[in-house]
From TrEMBL:
Keywords: ATP-binding, Nucleotide-binding, Transport. GO terms for molecular function: ATP binding; ATP hydrolysis activity. This is Zinc/manganese transport system ATP-binding protein. The keyword GTP-binding does not apply.
């Protein structure tokens, strides 16, 4: 069920992530089946789909936290989990406890623990330099010494990006990193992620309910609905025909001023309409 994919690669050397015949089911429930996907270094892939379609489960597979029911998966040339130092992860955003007194730069440093930079002679100096650089790269220097619990959602999210990037990952996995950020911070965080993949060729898998904030950055979309999926560029995948087939309902895709609106998907497919692509046509 894939759309032609001119950027598809077949060798592991030029592939950051490779899924072959990947299937994930929980009991009788098939989340996705026969998923073939190669993601190239530096590629930005958005994973879209309604609540419960298996987006986070895909990230869990790539992190080595969830085994496939069938098929194979490689991340940075290794089995998931084995390549953990090559993988950065921005988990779904939850506001940090206001009483949390750990400093921002210590939170970022957690991204290095267990990595090669944290150990050995000179390791502490390297570690400090890497944390300082990562904090600066996300524009967090001014607040990195404050307790993270007192920072705004946008400031906390910049630090999470720094934590994911401080280990110099080849693959960056993001689970709705823009959730509950205002437009300025959505733009700031997505620009940081985009810069990283351009500067360091880091492959990005970006789970999101809303494609528009990242549409200019997206190379390909993986759209999951109820066990079915489509893969391709946004223009290839986000058509009325494709989405109607995926949702098995009449869905209309309207492109207005460089944005994509999906009309006609009722809320039974998605619990939270504010997360949804549902929008009134302008
Ligand atoms: N370990 C598990 N055992 C059984 N079912 C599970 C397990 N993990 C997830 N599920 C179910 O699989 C489905 C997919 O969950 P997942 O979190 O991957 O969806 P999602 O697309 O990320 O959803 P959302 O948009 O709501 O975050 C859900 O119905 C969930 O309840």
């Amino acid at each position: 069920m894939t759309v032609d994919n001119p950027t598809d690669t077949t060798t592991t050397t030029s592939t950051a992530i490779s899924l072959r015949g990947a299937t994930l089911s929980y009991g009788d429930r098939v989340l996705w089946d026969g998923l073939d996907l190669d993601i190239a270094p530096g590629e930005f892939v958005a994973v879209l789909g309604p609540n419960g379609s298996g987006k986070t489960s895909l990230l869990r597979v790539l992190l080595g936290l969830q085994r496939l029911s069938a098929g194979t998966v490689e991340v940075a040339g290794a089995r998931p989990g084995r390549a953990s130092r090559s993988v950065g992860y921005i988990p779904q955003q939850r506001a940090l406890d206001p009483s949390l007194t750990v400093r921002g730069r210590d939170l970022v440093g957690l991204g290095l623990d267990g990595h090669r930079w944290g150990i050995g002679f000179g390791g502490m100096r390297d570690r400090r330099r890497r944390v300082t650089d990562a904090v600066a790269a996300v524009g967090a220097t001014d607040f990195a010494d404050r307790p993270v619990g007192l920072l705004s959602g946008g400031e906390q999210q910049r630090l999470r990006v720094a934590q994911a990037l401080v280990g110099d990952p080849a693959v960056l996995l993001c689970d709705e990193p823009l959730l509950s950020l205002d437009i300025a911070n959505q733009r700031a965080v997505s620009t940081l992620i985009d810069k990283r993949r351009r500067d360091a060729d880091t492959a990005v898998v970006f789970v999101t309910h809303e494609i528009n904030p990242v549409l200019p950055l997206v190379d390909r979309v993986l759209y999951l609905v109820d066990g079915r999926f489509r893969i391709g560029t946004p223009d290839e995948v986000m058509t009325s025909k494709n989405l109607s087939e995926l949702y098995r309902a009449a869905v209309e895709v309207i492109k207005v001023r460089g944005q994509i609106h999906v009309v006609g998907v009722h809320s039974g497919l998605c619990e939270d309409e504010s997360h949804h692509h549902l929008a009134e046509a302008e």
